[in-house]
Write a structure and sequence with these properties.
The complex is a heterodimer. By secondary structure, chain A is of the alpha/beta class. Chain A has 29 helices and 39 strands. Helices cover about 30% and strands about 20% of the residues of chain A. Classes of the chains: A alpha/beta, B alpha+beta. The interface of A and B includes residues 168, 183 and 184 of A.
């Protein structure tokens, strides 16, 4: 681009040719008023006419946001003619805008109000046009008041181009023009996903956060930037605080992961913080009933019980379960508590149930088990291979990047999933494998690549080992063989393999559809095999990207809430590591690998584990084969649970301690792209509740171990000193955008993508993996496959989302998705109650007949306690990662007579 | 999808739906093909109810809100069924002063319709227009393209009776 000379308001300016007049003026500090443009989205439709300027020699005024500069332009941004035109435009807008600013939610933050103020317009000279369009307000999240709409088009732009929901557009004509929802319906009855992006961009009061209505004016709110506590995307936003309460969430455009984008849970799902049924005091169970207790009483009881159990049955009769919902600092402290105070490596958390196969598999193949790339790199990949991830519902913000890659950047998307997930609409190729046959499918792809000579020979020779063995194995899996196993047509396997192997960058994205199998580790190893075979790892936009489920599941693993490693994946069996931690913590430490979640509960069932401390987890809903799990928890002699609500697990506890929500404490969490980000205290803890890090410290003190910190920042300093990959993580460096590990020292900039010239373990290792069937296959008695997962509107065990008014209203009950073919055969109608039974339990829920499910496969989410999917699931474990097989079990279905 | 077709069959014949699918196929991948598609669809079906728009949206992957926006924007498209015959009463200045208004009122009363509406028996769609350029024949009425000039109020019914 060449520089040119132009004149703006008689000032000579040198600017880049082709930028808009608006930008050129901004560059020299001249502010031109705008209404419709959204610079951060490059949206400049030139429709509102507020930004008009005079260009000498051009007869009409031009929209500066859309007019490119060229050599010699002479521009007047603020002369009489321009101001007159702007005033006229404003008067037209105000003539058809209700002037109820004194009660309008948007007042104080309204672009139209500000413009009227700036131009001193009290009243329009035109007759006030009183539109009488009824409000669209029957959904729980958004009020749409089209009478206030100025038709700027911002909401249409973000809905159609960024969110790509395509719910709204311009309709009708002339003075009757309005924004219409899918064929003139309202949001509630459209396919709207209530991301609220439109609310975030509306310049006036036409789109309003319903729950926040009447609860505060813009200028009354204190804003606190924080990180979302739902999924692993790691979105940032602002809590809006008034009188010590979180009133609403608003986008913060400086957020590095998500910009202004948020999903329905992030934007509208935080009303649970101030629910009346929060736990506010410690509770001690006496004669089967919880009684309020003081912290001192609770600590005393826990301390004496744990000490007694330890003395009588040994350290390893105790265990702690940490939490992927708590901060890095809290996870570090709880694992320290388990190891240094209780003296056991029986430390684990729910990552065991979602991505332990990733940690195990990728660590074996590459040397570290995390997303190799960053979220922002996804949009630039040439091909995205998405498998076992319903990204739209489970990682909504990452799904936006995938959609952007396909629709804006021309990437090809290959989806391999048994369910017809939303992203199949964007896919160039959809491989619908039978659940549990992923290894066969991967081997089939690799078979084609090798037999057609498409493998990356140089990469294989220089950066990997074990290739010959892999080759021998996969050559057995030709596409015809694989078609028989997986049900994917051989020709599609060939097509997919050729696409995969012949483009410059491939981002392989997967989630729990890959890991939650008895062959989870094998599946993960297969993803690594495929990416190394084609040289698709260690480059920008190219690699293996597991999407982590919980907001801090990456961090909980990183900080060593696992039975075999300390923080930073330093092995407990390594004598040097053991000595380092032993010295730092001032105690002797065990070098025996501890038990995993399911093993701990099995041991509890058998009476071998007698005391468990569970921090903010809910195994009584989340673990497989719940009847067994709940019985195990009941058998634990002394169970302590800390949480914010009375969960299904807390109900079984002997002592319940009130923890706090993300809004009531400081700390850091690590998102799925290894980015460590701050959460910030926005309101005081309710009642006597305390942040978990304080609880752990005080309990440790009570038990005679000196654990004292003034703030989470101090804990992070200790973490940095003991954990190489977090070596440079200090709070002052994390303020703005956080840092991605590995971040080795105080000057290290963090790492955008892994394995650049060398794998963490040196050479990447191929593992030849044979296909194995799932542990439980359909048979005559149980003829259907049940696969489980999550839905957009709820999270995990539903503890918080079921308590969010809007989320629970929009998605109030469990649904069993069943294919039209199966429904017909079983004579089941859509919306009818059915009974789903496996060998382990049965539940009743409504049927949803949908083509999303393939024939022979039913799907359920596990959010609903009244129809808990995990009563059905199989606790068969992957032999390496010990992850249970949530994704495949055999069930039967029949009509239920009563509810 | 089956449910969708069932809905369509209440209003249209299977042949019409097959024909519609052919039109959709013809324009499906053509950039900017949606307007000619809608035009041909309306020629075929007479109007474009929401179920037809849904069908077109599903098969073209163009969002329903976009299609609905187009249908409501252009006056040639209609979402209500058309009558067998279209009656246009001119209310341009010349026709108005020479009794066009009276003619319009008679039709509105006799057939219980307002401008833009269709009679319940779907025999007539009634519209008013501003000047047909036939001021010499004022007041004028056009039925299915046939122009009737110097129409006296007493003749209106008689003219329309010819169209069954």
């Amino acid at each position: 681009m060449s520089l040119i000379n132009i004149m703006i308001d008689n000032i000579k300016v040198r600017v880049e040719e082709g930028i808009t007049i608006l930008d050129a003026a901004k560059g020299v500090g001249i502010k031109i008023p705008t209404l419709c443009v959204m610079p951060e989205l490059k949206f400049a439709p030139g429709s509102c006419r507020m930004c008009v300027v005079e260009v000498v020699g051009v007869p009409a005024l031009v929209a500066s946001c859309a007019y490119p500069v060229k050599e010699g332009l002479e521009i007047h941004t603020n002369n009489k003619r321009v101001v007159r035109a702007r005033k006229m435009t404003l008067e037209f807008l105000l003539a058809s805008h209700p002037l109820d600013c004194m009660t309008c939610e948007k007042s104080g933050n309204c672009v139209l109000e500000d413009l009227a103020y700036d131009f001193g317009i009290k009243k329009s000279r035109f007759r006030q046009n009183k539109k009488q369009i009824p409000l669209d307000e029957n959904n729980p999240f958004i009020i749409r008041d089209l009478n206030k709409c100025v038709l700027c088009g911002r909401c249409v732009e973000i809905c159609n181009e960024i969110q790509q929901s395509n719910i709204i557009d311009f309709g009708y004509r002339g003075t009757k023009t309005e924004i219409v929802v899918e064929g003139g319906t309202d949001l509630r009855f459209s396919n709207c996903v209530f991301c609220g992006q439109c609310v975030a961009v509306c310049p006036v009061g036409a789109l309003i956060d319903k729950e926040a209505q009447g609860k505060g004016r813009t200028w009354e709110f204190k804003k606190v930037k924080t990180t979302c506590s739902y999924c692993g995307c790691g979105c940032n936003f602002d809590f809006n605080i008034k009188e010590g309460k979180v009133v609403k969430v608003t986008s913060n455009s400086e957020s590095v992961v998500n910009g202004i984008n948020l999903c329905v849970k992030g934007r509208f799902g935080y009303d649970y913080i101030h629910r009346g049924d929060r736990l506010t005091t410690p509770l001690i169970k006496k004669n089967g009933k919880f009684k309020k207790a003081s912290w001192e009483e609770a600590y005393k009881l826990i301390s004496s019980k744990f000490t007694q159990i330890k003395k009588e049955n040994g350290n390893n009769s105790l265990a702690v379960l940490s939490s992927a919902k708590c901060t890095n600092e809290e996870n570090y402290l709880l694992m320290k508590f388990g190891r240094a105070v209780l003296g056991t490596n029986n430390v684990d958390h729910c990552a065991r149930l979602c991505h332990s196969a990733t940690v195990a598999g990728l660590a074996q193949a590459f040397g570290s088990g995390a997303m190799t790339n960053s979220i922002e790199e996804i949009a630039d990949a040439s091909v995205i291979y998405l498998t076992g991830s319903n990204t739209t519902e489970n990682h909504p913000i990452i799904a936006l990047e995938i959609k952007k890659a396909v629709t804006k950047n021309g990437a090809k998307l290959i989806v391999a999933d048994p369910r017809e997930i939303e992203l199949t609409k964007y896919a160039a190729l959809w491989l619908r494998q039978r659940p549990g046959t992923d290894v066969a499918l991967f081997n089939g792809l690799m078979n084609v690549i090798i037999s057609e000579g498409l493998e990356d020979k140089e990469f294989i020779a220089q950066r990997t080992e074990g290739y010959e063995e892999l080759k021998k194995t996969v050559l057995k899996y030709n596409p015809e063989v694989v078609e028989k196993i997986t049900g994917v047509p051989a020709e599609d396997i060939r097509k997919a393999a050729r696409i995969y192997a012949t483009v410059p960058t491939v981002s392989l994205i997967y989630s729990m559809g890959i890991t939650q199998h008895t062959t989870g580790t094998d599946n993960v190893l297969s993803t690594a095999n495929l990416s190394m075979l084609t040289g698709n790892v260690g480059k920008e936009s190219t690699g293996v990207n597991p999407l982590r489920g919980q907001n801090n599941v990456q961090g909980a693993c990183d900080l060593g809430a696992l039975p075999n490693v300390y923080s930073g994946y330093q092995k407990v069996i390594d004598p040097q590591v053991q000595e380092k931690f032993s010295k730092a913590w001032g105690v002797d430490l065990s070098n025996k690998v501890g038990l995993t979640v399911v093993e701990i509960l099995n041991a509890a069932y058998e009476g071998k584990i007698k005391g468990i401390f569970i921090m903010a987890e809910n195994p009584a809903m989340s673990d497989p084969d719940l009847n067994h799990t709940r019985e195990a928890l009941k058998r634990v002699e002394f169970l302590v649970v800390s949480d914010i609500f009375m969960t299904e697990t807390a109900e079984l506890a002997d002592v319940v301690l009130p923890g706090v929500t993300v809004a009531e404490k400081d700390g850091t969490i690590t998102n799925t792209e290894r980015r460590v980000q701050r959460i910030r205290k926005a309101v005081e803890p309710v009642g006597e509740s305390k942040p978990e890090w304080k609880i752990i410290c005080e309990l440790a003190q009570k038990m005679g171990y000196n654990m004292k910190y003034n703030s989470p920042a101090e804990i992070m300093e200790e973490i940095a000193s003991l954990t190489p990959i977090y070596g440079g993580m200090y709070y002052n460096r994390l303020e703005k955008a956080g840092l991605q590990w590995p971040c080795l020292d105080i000057n290290h900039p963090g790492t955008k993508y892994l394995h650049k010239d060398k794998f963490t373990r040196g050479k990447g290792k191929f593992f030849a993996v044979e296909f194995k069937e799932a542990a439980e296959l359909p048979d005559e008695e149980y003829p259907l496959i049940l696969t489980t997962g999550r839905v957009l509107y709820h999270f995990h065990t539903g503890t918080v989302t079921r308590r969010s008014k809007g989320l629970d209203e929009i998605y109030p009950e469990a649904l069993v998705e069943i294919s039209p073919d199966d429904a017909k055969e079983l004579k089941i109608e859509d919306g009818e109650f059915i009974e789903v039974a496996s060998r382990r339990g049965k539940i009743k829920a409504k049927a949803k007949v949908t083509g999303k499910s393939g024939k022979g496969v039913v799907f359920m989410s596990f959010h609903f306690r009244e129809a808990a999917a995990n009563l059905l699931t199989n606790a068969a474990l992957d032999p390496v990662a010990k992850i249970p097989e949530y994704k495949v079990c055999a069930v039967k279905i029949k009509k239920a007579l009563i509810k | 999808m089956e449910q969708q077709i069932d809905n369509l069959l209440e209003e249209f014949t299977l042949e019409q739906i097959d024909e519609l699918d052919k039109i959709i196929e013809k324009y499906r991948v053509e950039p900017g093909g949606i307007i000619p598609l809608l035009e041909e669809a309306q020629d075929l079906l007479g109007y474009l109810p929401i179920n037809i728009q849904k069908q077109i949206s599903n098969k073209t992957n163009i969002s329903l809100s976009r299609i609905y926006g187009i249908v409501t924007f252009y006056s040639i498209f209609t979402m209500t069924p058309r009558g067998k015959h279209t009656v246009k009463v001119c209310l341009g200045t010349a026709c108005y002063v020479r009794g066009g208004k009276k003619n319009a009122e008679i039709i509105e009363k006799e057939f219980e319709v307002k401008p833009g509406e269709t009679t319940t028996d779907r025999r007539f769609t009634y519209e008013t227009v501003r000047c047909l350029g036939a001021c010499g024949l004022a007041p004028a009425i056009v039925v299915d393209g046939e122009v009737y000039g110097r129409v006296k109020p007493s003749k209106v019914k008689e003219i329309l009776e010819q169209y069954k």
